[in-house]
């Protein structure tokens, strides 16, 4: 049933109710954040203690102490990338990339094995270079916030003799600065995946190759980090010469939609309603506040329920302690515009650039008079390796392969969902060896990686931290 209201009459009653609910929720959320600004820290700590008491009252388990629980507590309490590296004995470097349009991007580097320190940081190591890039609403911490370093792809790569770099998108925890606009302005947040592709990815790769003096690097992306690479490689032909292989974990290009019918239907009907609900700055900025006052096991359960509702992800392959540790590092700031861009892609079932024409022309004939520009992904020359979970609701591998060049290789991960590929219990068995094998196959560096050809198939010597 649709209401006979001019302009808005294309929305159903369910969509109107969703809008009303969304505005109400955001109003309450804003009010609570305003109140919290004036609350002293002891009061905030009181709320945290009460949520912990409620967890135990309803039979929650969290007092047991075992090796994974102790490791989880360390990861949970880590403030940033440096703390996470220190937990497992790695020394990192911090770099800053200035994009051509003025954003300052935080860039992390793990140049050496565990316990090793370099006397000349910020210089070439002579090792093959691997660049890891995170997904939507994430930052570089997602690669190393694991309870066991053997399951962290970044740490394993460092142990195998790679020079490991981890990027960050503009606007997130490590990249919230621009030389033109402050983060409290709408202009700062006026970016979508287009800007990631035109600037963030190529400018970061250029910086890495300048520092390392390497002719090429290998790119490993997760989720939106793969979409950004698909887009960047498709519109920058010269970038293909700098990337010897692109490994796409949980690849994202043009997802069919969300599992939640209300949200999926509403946003496909009019993605720009997101601007009405969330404004034109960062999205879900209150997440960090809720995380600070809710007991971590409860916060993890909230995230779990949300993932089931939105994506039908049950995360059975991720342990409870790993969830509690990793979910604390999951969220990072992103623009509302970048979310709207994804809903435009879903609505049109096409991997397209951001559509600035929010009021698209009314189609009166069978031939459309307007079509948003699409990323020409079939033109990518760089070798592509897709690693996808066959239980991931966001991946339609057959549809994706039709939009990619014929040299693309797809590897299925049985029973894996989306986040499993990062934090699953058996990623060191099911995922990481496949990544290492692909890197060895496609890496064209003249210098060798020590004994990487044999050690990649041997069990690595990791001890508990």
From TrEMBL:
Domain Partial AB-hydrolase lipase: 82-145
Tree of life domain: Eukaryota
Keywords: Hydrolase, Lipid degradation, Lipid metabolism, Membrane, Transmembrane, Transmembrane helix
Any GO CC annotation of this UniProt entry: membrane
Pfam family, any one: Abhydro_lipase
Major subcellular location class: membrane
Tagged with keyword Lipid metabolism: yes
Cellular compartments annotated: Membrane
GO biological process: lipid catabolic process
Membrane topology label: Single-pass membrane protein
UniProt-listed InterPro entries: AB_hydrolase_fold, AB_hydrolase_lipase
Gene3D superfamilies registered for this protein in UniProt: alpha/beta hydrolase
A molecular-function term among this protein's GO annotations: hydrolase activity
Segments crossing the lipid bilayer: 16-39
PANTHER family given in the database record: LYSOSOMAL ACID LIPASE-RELATED (PTHR11005)
Name of the protein described by the UniProt record: Triacylglycerol lipase
Organism expressing this protein natively: Macrolepiota fuliginosa MF-IS2
Lineage of the organism: Eukaryota, Fungi, Dikarya, Basidiomycota, Agaricomycotina
């Amino acid at each position: 049933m649709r209401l006979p209201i001019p302009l808005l009459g294309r929305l159903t009653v369910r969509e109107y109710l969703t809008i009303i609910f969304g505005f109400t929720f955001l109003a309450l959320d804003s009010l609570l954040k305003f109140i919290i600004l004036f609350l002293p820290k002891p009061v905030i700590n009181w709320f945290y203690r009460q949520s912990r008491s409620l967890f135990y009252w309803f039979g929650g388990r969290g007092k047991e102490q075992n090796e994974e629980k102790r490791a989880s507590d360390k990861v949970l309490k880590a403030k940033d990338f440096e703390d996470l590296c220190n937990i497992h004995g790695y020394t990192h470097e911090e770099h800053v990339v200035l994009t051509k349009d003025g954003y300052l991007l935080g860039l992390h580097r793990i140049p050496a094995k565990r316990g090793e320190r370099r006397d000349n940081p910020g210089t070439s190591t002579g090792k093959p270079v691997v660049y890891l890039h995170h997904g939507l609403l994430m930052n570089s911490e997602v690669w190393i916030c694991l309870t066991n370093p053997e399951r962290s792809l970044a740490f394993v790569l460092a142990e195998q003799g790679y020079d490991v770099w981890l990027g960050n998108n503009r606007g997130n925890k490590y990249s919230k600065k621009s030389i033109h606009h402050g983060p409290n302005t709408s202009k700062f947040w006026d970016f979508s995946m287009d800007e990631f592709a035109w600037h963030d990815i190529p400018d970061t790769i250029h910086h890495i190759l300048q520092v390392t003096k390497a002719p090429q690097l290998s790119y490993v992306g997760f989720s939106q980090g793969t979409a950004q690479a698909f887009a960047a490689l498709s519109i920058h032909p010269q970038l293909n010469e700098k990337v010897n292989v692109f490994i796409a974990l949980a690849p994202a290009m043009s997802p069919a939609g969300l599992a939640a019918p209300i949200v999926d239907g509403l946003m496909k009907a009019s993605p720009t309603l997101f601007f009405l609900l969330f404004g034109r700055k960062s999205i879900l900025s209150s997440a960090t506040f809720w995380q600070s006052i809710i007991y971590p096991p409860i916060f993890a359960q909230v995230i779990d329920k949300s993932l089931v509702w939105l994506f039908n992800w049950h995360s059975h392959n991720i342990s409870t302690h790993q969830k509690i540790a990793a979910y604390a590092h999951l969220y990072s700031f992103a623009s509302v515009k970048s979310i709207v861009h994804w809903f435009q892609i879903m609505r049109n079932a096409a991997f397209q650039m951001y559509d600035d024409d929010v009021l698209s022309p009314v189609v009166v004939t069978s031939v459309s008079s307007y079509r948003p520009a699409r990323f020409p992904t079939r033109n990518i020359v760089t070798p592509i390796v897709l690693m996808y979970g066959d239980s991931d609701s966001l991946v339609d591998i057959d549809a994706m392969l039709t939009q990619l060049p014929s040299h693309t290789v797809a590897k299925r991960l049985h029973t894996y969902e989306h986040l499993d590929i990062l934090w699953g219990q058996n990623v060191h068995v099911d995922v990481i060896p496949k990544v290492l094998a692909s890197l060895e196959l496609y890496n064209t560096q003249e210098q060798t990686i020590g004994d990487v050809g044999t050690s990649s198939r041997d069990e690595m010597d990791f001890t508990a931290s």
